[in-house]
């Protein structure tokens, strides 16, 4: 599934097209799509769809796309016609592309018809999907004349304009389109970089809701966040391990271990902000280097360029600072020292275990003056000292943000809400620019873990099997609201023999209240993959020895390949 970076690049390419051509040339002349196998068989023999070629959609089209249980139409419903009515070519509506919005998991297109009515189209990127804008000649020669099974991608939906065709290309037609006259009815998850306050508000609501309904919260935190539809939109199978690394978190921490700690939660949110800002400010200049017109086109050697921006996913080694290296060594020492114990509780004291966290990895967030999570991460006093030593403005010391307000309202035991940081290691915040290669002082090997059928790359080791999260008291059962039935009538009194009286039993003392039993969480099992599996999952191996795609906007289904010809590049 396209993640934050891929969705952003597709939206920015659409925006680049919008801003580069005359507005009057962006009136939709036709809608194109590839047919599914079932749809192909229903088209007339010899037609483009029956032959496996991309075809134009008529106004009576009933083609649907998306998840099997909630598919939506390709053709805008507001402009469609009934099967018994005359067809109306879409060009007659004067539907013009007038706006593009970025979104962590979607591309949002805004159209306006000749009557000034607005038509929004949310393109939900469900699997391998990329936007490309072909010149008309290239579209006709390289796409229209090639069977969908031969060209290596399928056309989810394409908008034909006067000179260009904006196409959303997919691996297997797993894509969805939502048409609506109202923007408010479409995807609304905030972009963490563009709206950090609202992002934090959503995180707070999600944490609070989970605490209210989940008693244990012992599931794997990374898996939970990655599969959530409410927070961290755009964070998927490779983005999440990157954020975990940047936040200094072990891959098998539980939900409670992460989100009961203000510092860990703040570091994770700050990591996503940093990741998103990097994407917004530096990713498009990288992609523009490989544009041929409005088509992303790369050489084989360029496919790995995006991976150079990653820390751990699919990497053989990760470059880290000396501070990170020392913290990693400290953590490994704790694991080794406790390896003989049958079971030890993951509780932080003066000897650790401490998180392997490097502030350089979330620098954008720590330098933010609008909302800054530094006081939550390090504690107010230590953060003030770090700000002063780094020369950060006073605004960076503010703790006014939704996350800080939420944790201030909780009464968490210190052991559960610890920062998990060895503050003695943080005598400075950032490395001096004059320090040569400070961010590449060490390059430890990565490890590949597997949890819940998902791969997790990490330099930070998982907590060992003989460790367990801090026990939590099992919450009392909520009182039932059902009305108890009336007590049964007393049994009839039996008459004994004259002169004998039945011995009366002593009334029983009320039972003593039982203490709430301790609940030792059972984390989701995590498996360390062997070296052969790890090697075959490296990005370099996949690109060199397989036909599979990897990650990033330069190596996705639908990205063109540059080939050499007599006249130069083709």
TrEMBL record:
UniProt keyword list: Signal
Composition-biased stretches (Basic residues): 494-511
Signal peptide: 1-23
Biased composition (Pro residues): 472-493, 512-521
Signal in keyword set: yes
Region annotation Disordered: where it falls in the sequence: 468-521
Protein name according to UniProt: Uncharacterized protein
Source organism: Favolaschia claudopus
Lineage: Eukaryota, Fungi, Dikarya, Basidiomycota, Agaricomycotina
């Amino acid at each position: 599934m396209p993640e934050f970076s891929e969705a952003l690049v597709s939206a920015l390419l659409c925006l680049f097209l919008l801003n580069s051509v005359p507005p009057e040339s962006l009136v939709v002349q036709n809608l194109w799509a590839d047919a599914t196998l079932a749809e192909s068989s229903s088209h007339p023999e010899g037609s483009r769809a029956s032959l496996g070629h991309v075809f134009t959609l008529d106004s009576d089209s009933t083609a649907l796309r998306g998840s099997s249980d909630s598919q939506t139409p390709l053709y805008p419903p507001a402009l469609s016609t009934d099967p018994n009515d005359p067809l109306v070519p879409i060009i007659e509506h004067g539907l013009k592309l007038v706006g593009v919005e970025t979104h962590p998991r979607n591309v949002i297109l805004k159209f306006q018809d000749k009557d000034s009515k607005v038509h929004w189209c949310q393109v939900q990127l469900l699997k391998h999907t990329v936007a490309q804008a072909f010149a008309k000649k290239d579209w006709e020669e390289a796409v229209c004349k090639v069977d969908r099974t031969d060209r290596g991608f399928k056309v989810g939906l394409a908008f034909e304009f006067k000179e260009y065709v904006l196409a959303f290309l997919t691996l297997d037609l797993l894509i969805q389109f939502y048409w609506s006259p109202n923007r408010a009815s479409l995807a609304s998850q905030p972009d963490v970089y563009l709206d950090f306050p609202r992002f934090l508000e959503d995180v707070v609501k999600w944490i609070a809701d989970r605490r209210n309904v989940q008693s244990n919260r012992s599931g794997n935190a990374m898996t939970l966040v990655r599969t959530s539809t409410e927070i961290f939109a755009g964070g998927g199978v490779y983005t999440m391990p990157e954020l975990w690394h940047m936040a200094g978190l072990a891959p098998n921490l539980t939900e409670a271990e992460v989100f009961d700690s203000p510092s860990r939660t703040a570091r994770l949110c700050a990591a996503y902000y940093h990741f998103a800002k990097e994407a917004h400010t530096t990713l498009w200049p990288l992609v523009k280097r490989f544009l041929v017109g409005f088509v992303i086109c790369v050489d084989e050697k360029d496919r790995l360029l995006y991976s150079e921006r990653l820390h751990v996913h699919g990497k053989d080694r990760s470059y880290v600072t000396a501070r990170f290296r020392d913290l990693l060594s400290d953590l490994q020492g704790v694991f080794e020292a406790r390896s003989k114990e049958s079971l030890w509780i993951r509780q932080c004291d003066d000897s650790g275990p401490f998180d392997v966290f490097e502030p350089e990895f979330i620098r954008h967030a720590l330098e933010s003056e609008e909302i800054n999570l530094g006081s939550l991460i390090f504690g107010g006093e230590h953060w003030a000292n770090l700000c002063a030593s780094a020369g950060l403005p006073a605004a960076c010391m503010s703790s006014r943000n939704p996350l800080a307000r939420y944790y201030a309202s909780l009464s968490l035991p210190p052991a559960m809400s610890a920062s998990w940081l060895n503050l003695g290691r943080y005598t400075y915040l950032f490395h001096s620019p004059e320090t040569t290669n400070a961010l590449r002082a060490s390059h430890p090997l990565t490890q590949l873990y597997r949890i819940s059928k998902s791969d997790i790359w990490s330099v930070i080791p998982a907590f060992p099997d003989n460790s367990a999260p801090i026990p939590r008291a099992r919450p009392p059962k909520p009182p039932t609201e059902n009305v108890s039935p009336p007590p049964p009538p007393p049994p009839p009194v039996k008459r004994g023999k004259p002169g004998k009286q039945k011995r009366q039993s002593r009334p029983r003392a009320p039972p003593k209240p039982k203490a709430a039993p301790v609940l030792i969480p059972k984390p989701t099992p995590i498996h360390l993959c062997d070296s052969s599996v790890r090697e075959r999952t490296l990005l370099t191996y996949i690109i060199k020895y397989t036909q599979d795609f990897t990650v990033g906007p330069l190596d996705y289904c639908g990205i063109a390949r540059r080939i050499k010809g007599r006249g130069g590049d083709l």
